[in-house]
Amino acid sequence: MISAQDFVDSLGLQVLVPSTRKEWDIRTSDLNRPGLQFVGYYDYFAYERPQVVGKTEMSYLESLEPDVQRARLEKYLSFDIPCVVIARGMACPSVMAELAAAHNVPVYQTMAVTTRFFASAIIFLNSRLAPRVTRHGVLVDVFGVGVLLTGESGVGKSEAALELVKRGHQLVADDVVDICRVSENRLVGEAPEMVRHFMEIRGLGIIDIRAMYGVGAVVSHKSIDIVIHLELWRENKEYDRLGLSEEYITIMGAKLPYIVMPVRPGRNLAIIIEVAARNWRLKRMGYNAAAELDGRLTEMLQRSREGGQPSPMSEED
């Protein structure tokens, strides 16, 4: 369900004809321009979408004879339309206002041109209709990279995030992260409104990051680019030391790079997370340090075999 007030406030609309309906059962982010309906074609009419009247539709409507105009609008507004938005700041025809009020259909006005309003409205609807899930973790913005920290309670996620904030990065959410899938392979995370900007530090309690470090230390939402799982160091476990292979995790159908980071005294997690974020950016640009080193070693071994020289990896006394 889409809140009518949220739609108006988020898109900066002016109410021309009010309605008693508070929510709309909208299932898609698409909109409809009713040009064909004004002509009289109803074989396919997406009446369940918000209706946008642009300059073309308004010009045609105003060219009709008054009785024809009323008849066309009467049939058009008899459908269960969520709302009508008039673009370019154009005035609402009096007969449209009268019939819309009679059918309890709200009419809004936007100063934006039709195509620009379409783009803004689709972005708004996509964000509201996107599938959502709540995960336990901490989300931080590190060098513009959205890093989701996961792990058992008490492993040090909040402490690592606090150190990152002290180093100039931004907190998005602590402990609880609301995640929505806004496109095929893009996730966006944010904090629930109730706990936004707050962080729990064991031994201290609840602290307000925005009040303590300023508005630049927090951000309302951020795309999730990599997932770093913190776990207590296990001596009998082999951890990746080269980085030649990459692991992934799937969240809501989106595939994300996944790093398991062991935690033990003496490791500066904040610096390692910073390096992980920078390394992810380099990989996105096509540079992989582990692959580069592996390529150099392979090339040296190949040259040594061709020249009959001892391998640089052989042992010498």
Name of the top-level CATH class of the largest domain: Alpha Beta
Mean pLDDT: 88
Annotated CATH homologous superfamily of the largest domain: P-loop containing nucleotide triphosphate hydrolases
Largest sheet: 6 strands, mixed
Radius of gyration: 28 Å
Distance between the termini: 76 Å
- In helices, the fraction of residues equals 25-40%
Structural class: alpha+beta
Give the beta-strand count: 18
Q: Which geometry do the CA atoms define?
A: elongated
Number of domains: 2
CATH topology of the largest domain: Rossmann fold
Strand arrangement in the largest pleated sheet:
10-8-9-16-18-17
Low-confidence stretches: none
What fraction of the residues are assigned to beta strands by DSSP? 25-35%
CATH architecture title of the largest domain: 3-Layer(aba) Sandwich
The total of helices stands at 10
